[in-house]
Amino acid sequence: MPVDTINGIARTIFKGSKAYKTWVGVLSLFAALGIGLYYIQATQGLIATNMRDQVSWGWYIANFTFLVGVAAAAVVLVIPYYIYKYKPIGDIVLIGECMAVAAVSMCLMFILLDMGSPERFWHLIPGLGIFNFPQSILTWDVVVLNGYLALNLFLVVYALSKIYQGQEYKTKFIWPFIVLSIPAAISIHTVTAFLYLGLPARPFWNAAVLAPRFIASAFCSGPAFMLLIFQIVRKNTKLNIKDEALFKVGELITWAMAFNLFFLIAEIFKERYSATAHLAPMNYLFYGLHGHDHLVPWIWTAVIFNSIAFLILLMPSLRKNFTTLNIACVLIFIGVYIEKGIGLVFPGFAPDTLGEIYDYMPNSLELVISLAVWAIGLLIFTVFAKVTIAIKTGEIGHAGAASHEH
Amino acid sequence: MSEDTKEKNNSLITRRKLLAGLAAGAAALALPVKNADAYVVEEYLRQHFKRLTPEELKGILKKTEEELSFKYGKQINVKATPPMDNVLYGYALDLSRCVGCRRCVYGCVNENNLSRNPQIQWIKVLEFEKENPKWQILEESNRYYEPEQVPEKGKFYVPVQCQQCKNPPCVKVCPVQATWQEPDGIVVVDYNWCIGCRFCMAACPYGARNFNWGKPYVPNEEINPNMHYLGNRPQYKGVVGKCTFCIQRSREGRYTACVEACPVGARKFGNLLDPKSEIRYILENLKVFRLKEELDTNPKFFYFFSMGMPVKS
Question: Residue B92 in 3-state DSSP?
């Protein structure tokens, strides 16, 4: 890279408005706080968290699961733009891919956080250690997550370097990679679902509908987050994002949420009508079991939020009004976050395989460390997106006529 | 690595101080390699148990012995006794005799050097109420019963530990093959290879795998000095451990600690391939069942009722 390119990128990252600097400062502060607390976890062990043998995965894995969905959602932009040539999305597709990069990075951080012996990660490296592929679904997850990260990084960097030079970037060369990113996005969330649903020991997860439900909810939460981000970007930068692009994404969220709720109903019906012993975790989640009911308000909040958001999005007049659209997006983001974490991971372990109920909730250490991962993820996204926008709007580089067609 | 293993490790104290200062072992790589640090590096770079050459294993066992002897202030022996030919261990538990006294639990804790703080137990005893119309539902059972005396009237007890499945879900899911099934049917964990992802704990239908959430602690005077590398040696923080049918005993033809500890003779153990064994007699002459048979894990741990009437309390 020539010196002026590096200078341009550095200038973009380190220079900005007061709001930008405050934002980056606050995120860095949270990141530092979390790294400090991680030291405690690393020295004491995971006993510093609230996880125990009965509930052996908790808040970290819940966040991981949610973020895999957010990462997969980039495909919601890729498909209409690249495959269906829906032009207005062209302004935002790269930012969607930046988000995928940040989200997958966060996923990998959460996995590392959750490991009991993270220093032994080399045991996973094929050749050095033992990579139990294809037996262990976890190894599949390692493959698809890292593959998806590499793919998105490559797509963004390639596109940006082309735009920077003022060239057309949708070349024949890049096309196969774009097409590949679609099944790759589906695969990361499918494999994550398979992690759970392949465990007959845990009846709450052992349902085929888990995989489609994961995909459906991912296509709500990720794009909802993106819609909010795009409006912030539009307000604060020269990047021109058209209303119709945002409304199109809103429309896609509507259908995804329809499927999500439909799958949920199917799942609830199956368990409740069959009324076998396998109903216990679902009862624990929705109604409480033997007086253990601390998840109940959470899951109902999620269901109500998702339903209200769905009703808002169903009406075109409300979907095309930014106030109501944003309310729906916030509701969906919170709703799916609860559903994927508190509503999926925790009840899978309660009652445990010998019928014991341990009421798990993350403690402050877990919450702050998780917050730090979010902060680092948002930092990655902020920096990436800022550079992307600077190049696309021609602030740095030679984005000529070619980029204005997108 | 084999040079390291031959090296005399003479200043473990330095190493201990050194280890105490490490937040994550990754930094160990950056340390200067002197004879004390060589051990840290060797341990960090140690290969999977199955990949060790006989010489490497011998060196590792010797070094582990030295280290543990120093730590616990007594002579400790660490073996890696291989499986015997034509042996497949099986276990049977007589529910009509079990009185729920939990002597097996503590016999196991003592024998296998399980952490006393945080407390780890490989055997869980569930108490059920005979009168409860939903007695067969697991969450109706109680693991934390504390009556003055057992057995209590109207209660029965079901101890659960690793079932040494023929089709073990835990082995299937481990991303690094840190847990596997030995030819004699015992599912073991290489405590130096486990990365602590706990996928196996999510996969086990019997709650038979325990994680070392904190640094395991066993008082010096309570340490059992006869150890097996894949069994009862002290575990590490951040790894999973499990019942191994007392591999350090069973591979020498002895009963497991829980069999010996049981005061009512409810526990039976032997070689499934030996037609004259007690375990075979039970399988052939009594009605047996296994837990969660619908999962097809095919446990080698059987439950049976030897008598129609419960033991008088």
Answer: strand
